[in-house]
Structures are given as C-alpha cells and as structure tokens.
Write a structure and sequence with these properties.
Length: 236
Amino acid sequence: PGRTDRLRTVAGWSGNCAADPLEINLHDSPCQQVMKDGTALFAQGIRQVFPQNTLLSSIGVESYMGVVLRNSEGQPTGHLCVMGVTPFLFDASQGTAILNVFARRAAAEIERLLAEETLKTSEEQFRAIVESATDAIILADHAGRIISWNNASERIFGYSMEEALGQPLTILMPARYRSQHEQGLARMGEMSQSTLGRKMLELVGITKEGREFPLELSLACWRSREDLFFSGIIRD
C-alpha cells in the first residue's frame, strides 16, 4: 500500500498447498511488464530474460504469464500471474483469455475487501468522534426511534445506551411537547430531499429523573433508500 515500486502477494498457490506470502521489487521482474502493458507471456526461458531476478532463479521458474487486475474504475490494482517450471504449451491469446476470467473475479474480490476495510476504518473513526464529543449526538429512524446514543447523551439525559436504543425521541421531552414533535416528524416525512436540511432550535428537554432543562438542538435529516433518518446534536 502506498508504493509503486514493490508488490506484496495477497494469495498464492504452489504445488499442492498455499504459497507463503512474498514481497518483491517491481523493477527487473516480469511483473513490471504486466503492470505497464496489461499482459505478459514468456513461454520459456524467463530466467535468461530477467537474469537479475533472484526469485525466479531460486524456485526454478521457466515460464510466466500475467494479466493486470483493474478495479471498477479501470485503475490497475495489482496482477494475477502463473509461473511454471516447464515451458507453456499454449499461445498468448489462449493463455490470457483463460487468465482474464480469473483476473476479473480476483479484482472484484480485492476491491470488495478494500471497500469493507475502508468502511470499517471510517466507522471506527466516526464512532470515536461521536463517543468523545461533549455534546449529545443522537440518531433516530423515520419513526423517531433512537438508533444511536453516545456517552454525552447518557450524561445529559441519564439514560444508558441499553435503555435509550429503540425508544421514541419523546422520552427526551416534557409530555406537553410530545404531540407537536410527532406532528413535526410526520410533516418532515412528507418533504422531498431538497427541502430537508439542518435547523437550529431552542427547546426544553427532560432527564430520566424528570428534571427539565433548556437545550440547544442542531437537527438534520436525510433520506437513504426511501427511509428518513434524523440526527441531533444537543447542548445543555
């Protein structure tokens, strides 16, 4: 990751078992031609073509074929190669046609794994920011049920995460305001995405123990796959 002069194997197979992971320099290797031209085929005598490459010599490679892996945007993300200790008995069009089938599957799987890793990292960063915030940060679904509750929310309102999740937002406001809140949710559910936005409100909240207090609420809402969600940043 982050380098263009070095490669690391993601997976490999040698003989009858999984191959040990490798890191190799791209320079002076057949892999460099794959990354440059998209394909490479050396049916035999590859050690003579790359005499400085100690890996090819150490495992007695005679033949090599490789194709580039590309992501959904067409950018190269690596390559898939096959090496043999005897000469290949097929031509370039036959070999690359077969290898390209596997390359497309491999490229798609690598892209999926990278996307999952990026998403996981993003979620962890988001959670760290939310949990370290001094303001209450609360997320709710279209029905006004709480789906996310941070540490500051527990400190301000007195409910633990286990107590708050799945509960209606109305538990956070005095009873006299609850019908207005429900009417407001219904109106927002009828709005288009372009009219949904962020609002700053001054309201009255109520703790688990029944203590009322003034609060400042930054309210935002958005749609995702036709569902409506709300986020609130609350300051006592």
